[in-house]
Design goal:
Elements lengths: L2 H7 L3 E4 L10 E4 L3 H7 L5 E4 L4 H10 L3 E4 L7 H10 L4 E3 L4 H10 L3 E2 L9
């Protein structure tokens, strides 16, 4: 599914990386706990989170996240956005939907869970 389709489905607003809205996404991971994201997520994944701190940008950079969706209408601060624009060139989207709604809508439309490592490997 393309990012621009995801934006429509989630009634989202692009806050960065609009030029990459044609990117294809096939998997996603939903979490607020960034240690879980680091431990269980692989690159080329859409990250769905309510965390709007600088750490989420660093995690996205480390893992090679495809795009970030911020849920519940949460907006990163200007400081976070400045760093994100300098370090990442990925779409960042804000939706008013909850994490549960967002995940369900994307799953229903063909986006699958990322292939994470089994807990025994973490």
């Amino acid at each position: 599914m393309r990012i621009k389709e995801i934006i429509e489905l989630l009634e989202g607003e692009v806050i960065a990386g609009e030029e990459n809205s044609d990117l294809e996404v096939s998997s996603a991971y939903s979490a607020d706990l960034l240690s879980d994201v680091l431990a269980l997520t692989e690159g080329d994944t859409l990250l769905i989170t309510g965390t709007v701190t600088l750490q989420v940008i660093r995690v996205a950079e480390i893992l090679g996240i495809t795009a970030i969706i911020f849920i519940r209408g949460k907006q990163p601060s200007d400081d976070v956005m400045d760093v994100a624009r300098k370090r990442l060139n990925i779409p960042m989207i804000v939706t008013r939907k909850t994490m549960f709604e967002t995940s369900g809508i994307l799953y229903k439309n063909g986006v699958r869970p990322c292939k994470n490592r089994p807990a025994s490997e973490v």
